[in-house]
C-alpha cells in the first residue's frame, strides 16, 4: 500500500520552521537598536603572492553603526593613506606594496551608535618573514665506525606547517631505518655509523608549503673511519636529550595529535618499546611510527593524560625515559550570554560560563569598557552573571563577556534593547497559502512586539477566535491547522495586541487534492542478467502538475537523475530500467513523488533470482559392493528454492574425465543411496537446480571403487550389414565401459539356419563385427550374441533373424500397356516378377524412358534416359513431364537392396499435341501517333503444329480503368511481326500475344508501349551492339536439342533489321558415345561454316569503320569505359531497347531468345520425385519416386540428375 512520507524538501522546511518558533524574533531594522557585528575576519596571513589583504568587520543597527579599530589595544587610524577603507562597513584592505611588516599585530573592531558599542574578537594579522638558513661554514665530521652521531638541521623559523627532509645533492632521500632517524626538530640521528654512511652531501631541506618556499642548509660532510675493534655497548638515549634527565613534561591541547619520540644510540642498534604507566595505550588512536621510535596518539582527550614510558633495549641493557603528558584546552563556552529585547520596567539576567584548562577568567564589559566603571542603576555583577531590574530605555547597551586562559580568548556580545512599540506584523497582508487534504496548513503572522503581545486567529466570516485541538498558534504567531479538509479553505485574519496597541493581517488558504502513486510491478522476482523495468504511475492536483517531480531510490539511497554512467541503470522520469541485473540490485526500490505541497512514496521489493551456489562438503558413507550413500550440504539458493539435485559420476575407463548423470534427487533432500555398477572407480559431484537454472557442479567427492562381476546384459541392435551374396556381416552395439562389469570382455556369436534341426555354429570375437559365409542367397538365420568376461557369461541371449547377402533380380517385368492421360502424362502397367527371382527383399520397380523423336519435324533425338522409381510391390505407375507431340520408349525393371535387375523389352508410345509455350519475346519496335509495329519470336516449344497467333491489346493509362480488349487472329504461323493502326495518340497500351495449335492457345507474352504525339517518331534504340573487335564467345547451351536464333545487329537507330541471322540447334557435350567422330557430323560442319562467315563479316565491318576518319578506336574505348556523365545523358535522352530483362555484357554476342517458364499443360517432374518431393496421383495416392538420370553415353542436359543406380544388361 502507499505510504505517505514527508519529502526531503518538506522535512527541511518543517525543521527550520520549528527552529524559528523556538528562538527569539530579531528586532526589525525599522526599530532603534544597538549595533550587532554580523561578520568579522579570523587570523589573517599576509602571503607574499597575494595582491592585497582584507580585514573584515560588518555590523547592523539603528541608527547606522560607526566603525573604529584598535591595533594591539591602541587606536588604529583608518584614514591612513596606506590602507583602503570600505564605505558603510569597518572592512579595510592592506595593499601588498612595499614593507607591510609594521601592520602585523592584533586588531579589534568596534561598531557603535548612540545606543551602544559592539566589539569583535581579536583579529591577528601575521606578516611572515622569508625563512632562510644562515650562511655558515660547517666543519666536516670525522667519526669512528660504530660511534653515534647527530647531524643538526636547526631550520629557520617560518609560517607553519614545517616539513623537513634530508637528501643528497641529487635530491635523493637519505634512507632511514632502525639505525638512522630524523627527529621532530629535523636533526638526523645515527645510533651507530657504518662505512656506507660516509658522504659529503648531507643536506637538510626545510619546506614551508603555505609560503610555497623550500630552503636548503649547506651540505655537511661525514667521514666514517673503519675500525677493527668496534665495541658493543648498551643503549643510551639521545632523544629526549640527556640533559632533560629521565623525566620530562609535555603539554598538548585537547583534540590535537600527541607525538612522543625516543631514540637511543648503542650497538647492536637498540629497539624502542612504549607503554602507558598505570594503564593501556588507547586502542584505535595510537600508532608507532619510524620503526617504533615515535608514539602517535590522535584526537587527544583528558583521559589520555598521564605518564608514558619509552624503553630502548639491546642484549647489553636498557635505557628509559618517562613523559608526563598534560592535556589542556583553550576556553570554550558552556553558557553564552544571549541578547534580549525588554520593555520598560522589566528585569533580566545575563549568564557567562566558560570551560578550559587552565580554567578561563571571565571579564565583563559594557559598550567595550570595563563594567566596573559603567554600571547602570540596578545592575548587579557577579563573576559569571549580570542581573538588572526596572529597566528603562536609557539602559539599552551592548554587554561583552570575555573568557581567556593562556591558550586563547573567546568573546561574546549580548544586546540589551529596551523597547516599547506597537506590534509590527512582518508578514505581508493578503498572503496566499495552499496545502493538500490531510496535511497541516501553516499561516504565518510573524511580528515584533515589546511589551509582549497576544496573537489570535479567526475566520473572516466568523467573529470568534479559532479554538479546538486542530488549531495551534506558535510563539512566532504562525497558525497551524492539523489534518486539513476541503472545508478549511477560505480567508483568515491574524490579530496581534499588546499594551501599546493592536494590528492585523489577512491570509487566504486553498486546499488541493493529495498526490497518489502506484509502482508496478509489485515485488517482482527477476532472474540475474535479465532486465528489470519498474514504472511509477502518479496522479496529482492540476494546480501542482508543474511542480511534480519523480525520483527513485534503493534502500534509502537516491539514484542519480539519469541513472549510472555506464548506462546499466537508466531513469526516464517515471521509468526505471536496469540492464544485466546483478545480485547487488536486490533491495527495496522506492518511487518518490514530490510537489510544492506534498510528497508520497511507494516501495516495491525487488528479488533477484540466480542459480544456486554449488553444493559443498560431499561425504560418502554406507559403502557396499553395488551401492554407496552420498551426502552433501546445500549452497545458497539465491531466492529460488532448489527443486532438485543432479548427481553425476566419473569413472568411464574409456573416456576418463567425462561426467555422466547417475540420478536426480528432490530439492529437499541432501542425501542419496546410489546404485552402482561393478568394476568402476567412481567419483561423484552434485549440481543444484532451481527455477533459474543449474548451479556450477560441486567439488568432486572421494573415490569409491566397486569389485568386478560377470556381464549383466548382452549386446543390443544385432543386425546384418549390406554384404555380398551368400555372406552375412553380423554387427551389434558393443557394451559400454560401464556395462562390461569386469576385464577381458568378449562376444560369443552363435548362428544356424532358421528352424533347421542342426547344431549352432559358434565363434568368439573381441570386436563387435563377424563375417559368416552361407550356402544360399538371402536365407534367414537365427543369430545370438552373448557377452562374456573373465568372471563369467552374461544372461542367456535372445535370437534374432538375419538374412544372408542379396543378389540382383534375374528376370524382368513385362510391360502390358501405356495409357496416355494427356500430352505430358501417361500411365504404365506391367507384370510383377516372382518372389524367388528377386534374390532379396524387393524394394520396388523402376521405369526408364527416353525420347526418340519429335512428331512435329520427325527429327530423332539422342538417347537421354530418365528414371522414375516406385516403392513396394505394385504393377503400375504414372510418368509425368513428357514432351508433347513426341515418340518415346520405356522399359521397366525390378530392384532390391543389391541393385536393379534386367530391363523389359522397350515399349514404344506417342504423346498427342498440346498447347504451345508462350512466344520467346514480344517487342514494340516502332510507334507513331496512331500506329505501332510489333515483332515476336515463335515459342521455343511448339508442342504441335503451329496454327497461328492470337494478338490482343488494350489501353492501360495511369488510372485504375483499363480499356476494352481488342483481338486479332493471325492465321499465318510464319508471321513474326504485325502492324497495328487506328490507335489513339499519346496513349499507353498493353499487348498480349499467344501461340496456338489445334489444341488451343498457350500462355501470353506481354509488352507495354505508348504512342507518340504529333510529328514525333517512336523508333526505339537497340540496347547493345556487338563489339566488332571482341572475340566471339560460344553460345551457352541451355537445353540439348533446343533451337537458338543468332543475329548480328547494327548498333545504330533503326528497325529490327539484321546484318546476319541464323538458327542454331544446340547439342549436348557428351556425343562421344553416340558418334565415332564429331568432325564428320553435318550439324557440326554447318555450325563451323556459320561461325567462319560471321567472323569474316565482323572483320569487314571493322575494316570499314577504321577507314571512317580513324575514330573507331575512340568509339571502342568509350564503349569499354564510358564516361559517367555522358552515359547518364544518353540514358535520360533515349529509351533502351533490350530483348532480355538482363543487359548483356559489352562486346558479347547474345541470343535474342529467352528461357521461358513451361506452359500450363506441362507436368513438373518435381511433383513425382522421391525423397523431399511431393508424391501424389489423381486420387491423392502415391505415384512413384522420380530421379532424373542418363545412361552412359547419353547427352547431358542442363539441370538433369545423375543416375542413382547402375543399369544392368
From TrEMBL:
- Where are stretches of biased composition, namely Basic and acidic residues? 1115-1133
- Tell me where it mainly resides: membrane
Compartments, as annotated in UniProt: Cell membrane; Secreted, Extracellular space, Extracellular matrix
Specify residue ranges for compositional bias: Polar residues: 1195-1209
Domain annotation Ig-like: ranges:
35-124, 128-223, 235-328, 331-417, 423-510, 515-607
What GO CC terms are in its UniProt record?
axon; plasma membrane
Describe the protein's quaternary organization and the partners it interacts with. Answer: May interact with L1CAM. May interact with ITGB1/ITGA1 heterodimer and ITGB1/ITGA2 heterodimer as well as with ANK3.
Q: What is this protein called?
A: Neural cell adhesion molecule L1-like protein
Origin species, per record, is Heterocephalus glaber
Amino acid at each position: 500500500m502507499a505510504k505517505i512520507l514527508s519529502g526531503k524538501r518538506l522535512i527541511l522546511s518543517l525543521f527550520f520552521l520549528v527552529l524559528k518558533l523556538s528562538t527569539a524574533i530579531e528586532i526589525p531594522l525599522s526599530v532603534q537598536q544597538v549595533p550587532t557585528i554580523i561578520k568579522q575576519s579570523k587570523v589573517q596571513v599576509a602571503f607574499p603572492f597575494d595582491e592585497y589583504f582584507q580585514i573584515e568587520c560588518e555590523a547592523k543597527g539603528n541608527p547606522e553603526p560607526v566603525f573604529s579599530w584598535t591595533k594591539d589595544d591602541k587606536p588604529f587610524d583608518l584614514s591612513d593613506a596606506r590602507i583602503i577603507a570600505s564605505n558603510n562597513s569597518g572592512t579595510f584592505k592592506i595593499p601588498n606594496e612595499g614593507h607591510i611588516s609594521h601592520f602585523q599585530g592584533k586588531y579589534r573592531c568596534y561598531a557603535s551608535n548612540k545606543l551602544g558599542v559592539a566589539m569583535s574578537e581579536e583579529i591577528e594579522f601575521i606578516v611572515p618573514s622569508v625563512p632562510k638558513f644562515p650562511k655558515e661554514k660547517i666543519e666536516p665530521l670525522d667519526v669512528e665506525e660504530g660511534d653515534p652521531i647527530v647531524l643538526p638541521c636547526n631550520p629557520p623559523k617560518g609560517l607553519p606547517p614545517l616539513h623537513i627532509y634530508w637528501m643528497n645533492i641529487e635530491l635523493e632521500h637519505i634512507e632511514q631505518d632502525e639505525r638512522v632517524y630524523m627527529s621532530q626538530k629535523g636533526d638526523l640521528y645515527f645510533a651507530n655509523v657504518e662505512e656506507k654512511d660516509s658522504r659529503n652531501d648531507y643536506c637538510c631541506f626545510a619546506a614551508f608549503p603555505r609560503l610555497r618556499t623550500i630552503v636548503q642548509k649547506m651540505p655537511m660532510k661525514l667521514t666514517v673511519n673503519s675500525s677493527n675493534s668496534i665495541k658493543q655497548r648498551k643503549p643510551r638515549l639521545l632523544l629526549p636529550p640527556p640533559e632533560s634527565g629521565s623525566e620530562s613534561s609535555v603539554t598538548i591541547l585537547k583534540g590535537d595529535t600527541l607525538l612522543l619520540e625516543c631514540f637511543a644510540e648503542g650497538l647492536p642498534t637498540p629497539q624502542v618499546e612504549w607503554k602507558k604507566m598505570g594503564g593501556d595505550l588507547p586502542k584505535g588512536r595510537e600508532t608507532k611510527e619510524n620503526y617504533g621510535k615515535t608514539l602517535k596518539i590522535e584526537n587527544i582527550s583528558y583521559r589520555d593524560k598521564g605518564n608514558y614510558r619509552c624503553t630502548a633495549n639491546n642484549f647489553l641493557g636498557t635505557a628509559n625515559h618517562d613523559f608526563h603528558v598534560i592535556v589542556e584546552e583553550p576556553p570554550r563556552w558552556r553558557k553564552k550570554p544571549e541578547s534580549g529585547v525588554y520593555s520598560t520596567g522589566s528585569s533580566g539576567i545575563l549568564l557567562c560560563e566558560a570551560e578550559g584548562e587552565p580554567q578561563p577568567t571571565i571579564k565583563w564589559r559594557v559598550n567595550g569598557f570595563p563594567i566596573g566603571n559603567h554600571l547602570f542603576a540596578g545592575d548587579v555583577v557577579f563573576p559569571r552573571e549580570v542581573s538588572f531590574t526596572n529597566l528603562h530605555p536609557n539602559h539599552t547597551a551592548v554587554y561583552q563577556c570575555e573568557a581567556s586562559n593562556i591558550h586563547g580568548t573567546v568573546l561574546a556580545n549580548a544586546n540589551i534593547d529596551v523597547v516599547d512599540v506597537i506590534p509590527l506584523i512582518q508578514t505581508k497582508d493578503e498572503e496566499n497559502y495552499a496545502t493538500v487534504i490531510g496535511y497541516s496548513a501553516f499561516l504565518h503572522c510573524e511580528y515584533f512586539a515589546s511589551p509582549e503581545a497576544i496573537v489570535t486567529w479567526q475566520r473572516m466570516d466568523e467573529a470568534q477566535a479559532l479554538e479546538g485541538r486542530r488549531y495551534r498558534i506558535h510563539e512566532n504567531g504562525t497558525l497551524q491547522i492539523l489534518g486539513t479538509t476541503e472545508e478549511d479553505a477560505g480567508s483568515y485574519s491574524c490579530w496581534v495586541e499588546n499594551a501599546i496597541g493592536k494590528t492585523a493581517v489577512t491570509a487566504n488558504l486553498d486546499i488541493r487534492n493529495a498526490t497518489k502513486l502506484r509502482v508496478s510491478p509489485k515485488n517482482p522476482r527477476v532472474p540475474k542478467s535479465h532486465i528489470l523495468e519498474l514504472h511509477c504511475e502518479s496522479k496529482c492536483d492540476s494546480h501542482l502538475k508543474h511542480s511534480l517531480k519523480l525520483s527513485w531510490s534503493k534502500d534509502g539511497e537516491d539514484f542519480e537523475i539519469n541513472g549510472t554512467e555506464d548506462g546499466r541503470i537508466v531513469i526516464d522520469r517515471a521509468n526505471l530500467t536496469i540492464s544485466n541485473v546483478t545480485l547487488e540490485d536486490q533491495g527495496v526500490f522506492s518511487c518518490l513523488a514530490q510537489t510544492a505541497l506534498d510528497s508520497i512514496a511507494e516501495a516495491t521489493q525487488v528479488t533477484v533470482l540466480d542459480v544456486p551456489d554449488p553444493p559443498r562438503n560431499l561425504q560418502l558413507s554406507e559403502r557396499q559392493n553395488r551401492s554407496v550413500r552420498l551426502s552433501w550440504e546445500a549452497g545458497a539458493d539465491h531466492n529460488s528454492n532448489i527443486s532438485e539435485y543432479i548427481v553425476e559420476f566419473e569413472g568411464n575407463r574409456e573416456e576418463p574425465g567425462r561426467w555422466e548423470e547417475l540420478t536426480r534427487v528432490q530439492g529437499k533432500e541432501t542425501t542419496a543411496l546410489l546404485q552402482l555398477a561393478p568394476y568402476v572407480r567412481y567419483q561423484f559431484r552434485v549440481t543444484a537446480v532451481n527455477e533459474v537454472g543449474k548451479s556450477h557442479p560441486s567439488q568432486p567427492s572421494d573415490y569409491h571403487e566397486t569389485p568386478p562381476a560377470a556381464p549383466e546384459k548382452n549386446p543390443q541392435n544385432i543386425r546384418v550389414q549390406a554384404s555380398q551374396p551368400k555372406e552375412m556381416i553380423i554387427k551389434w552395439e558393443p557394451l559400454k565401459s560401464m556395462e562390461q562389469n569386469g576385464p577381458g570382455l568378449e562376444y560369443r556369436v552363435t548362428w544356424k539356419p532358421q528352424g533347421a534341426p542342426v547344431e549352432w555354429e559358434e565363434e568368439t570375437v573381441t570386436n563387435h563385427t563377424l563375417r559368416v559365409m552361407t550356402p544360399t542367397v538371402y536365407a534367414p538365420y537365427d543369430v545370438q550374441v552373448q557377452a562374456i568376461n573373465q568372471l563369467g557369461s552374461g544372461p542367456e541371449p535372445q535370437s534374432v533373424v538375419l538374412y544372408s547377402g542379396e543378389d540382383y533380380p534375374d528376370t524382368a517385368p513385362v510391360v502390358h500397356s501405356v495409357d496416355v492421360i494427356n500430352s505430358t502424362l501417361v500411365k504404365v502397367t506391367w507384370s510383377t516378377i516372382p518372389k524367388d527371382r528377386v534374390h532379396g527383399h524387393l524394394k520396388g520397380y523402376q521405369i526408364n524412358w527416353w525420347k526418340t523423336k519429335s512428331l512435329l519435324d520427325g527429327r530423332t533425338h539422342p538417347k537421354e534416359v530418365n528414371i522414375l522409381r516406385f516403392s513396394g510391390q505394385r504393377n503400375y505407375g504414372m510418368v509425368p513431364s513428357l514432351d508433347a507431340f513426341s515418340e518415346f520408349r520405356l522399359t521397366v525393371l525390378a530392384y532390391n537392396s543389391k541393385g536393379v535387375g534386367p530391363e523389359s523389352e522397350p515399349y514404344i508410345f506417342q504423346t498427342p499435341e498440346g498447347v504451345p509455350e508462350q512466344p520467346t519475346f514480344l517487342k514494340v519496335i516502332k510507334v507513331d501517333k496512331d500506329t505501332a509495329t510489333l515483332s515476336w519470336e515463335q515459342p521455343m516449344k511448339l508442342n504441335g503444329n503451329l496454327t497461328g497467333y492470337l494478338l490482343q491489346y488494350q489501353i492501360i493509362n495511369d488510372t485504375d480503368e483499363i480499356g476494352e480488349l481488342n483481338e486479332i487472329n493471325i492465321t499465318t504461323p510464319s508471321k513474326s511481326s504485325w502492324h497495328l493502326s487506328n490507335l489513339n495518340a499519346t496513349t499507353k497500351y498493353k499487348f498480349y500475344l499467344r501461340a496456338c495449335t489445334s489444341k488451343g492457345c498457350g500462355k501470353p507474352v506481354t509488352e507495354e508501349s505508348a504512342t507518340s504525339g504529333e510529328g514525333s517518331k517512336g523508333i526505339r534504340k537497340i540496347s547493345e551492339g556487338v563489339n566488332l573487335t571482341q572475340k566471339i564467345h560460344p553460345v551457352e547451351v541451355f537445353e540439348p536439342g533446343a533451337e537458338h536464333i543468332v543475329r548480328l545487329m547494327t548498333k545504330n537507330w533503326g528497325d529490327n533489321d539484321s546484318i546476319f541471322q541464323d538458327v542454331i540447334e544446340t547439342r549436348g557435350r557428351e556425343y562421344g558415345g553416340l558418334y565415332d567422330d564429331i568432325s564428320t557430323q553435318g550439324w557440326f560442319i554447318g555450325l563451323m561454316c556459320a561461325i567462319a562467315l560471321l567472323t569474316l563479316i565482323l572483320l569487314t565491318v571493322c575494316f570499314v569503320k577504321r577507314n571512317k576518319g580513324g575514330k573507331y578506336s575512340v568509339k571502342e574505348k568509350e564503349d569499354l569505359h564510358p564516361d559517367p556523365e555522358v552515359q547518364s545523358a544518353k540514358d535520360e535522352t533515349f529509351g533502351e531497347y533490350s530483348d532480355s530483362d538482363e543487359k548483356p555484357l559489352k562486346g558479347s554476342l547474345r541470343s535474342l531468345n529467352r528461357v521461358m517458364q513451361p506452359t500450363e499443360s506441362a507436368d513438373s517432374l518435381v511433383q513425382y520425385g522421391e525423397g523431399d518431393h511431393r508424391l501424389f496421383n489423381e486420387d491423392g495416392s502415391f505415384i512413384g519416386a522420380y530421379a532424373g538420370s542418363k545412361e552412359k553415353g547419353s547427352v547431358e542436359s542442363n539441370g538433369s540428375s545423375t543416375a542413382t543406380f547402375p543399369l544392368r544388361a
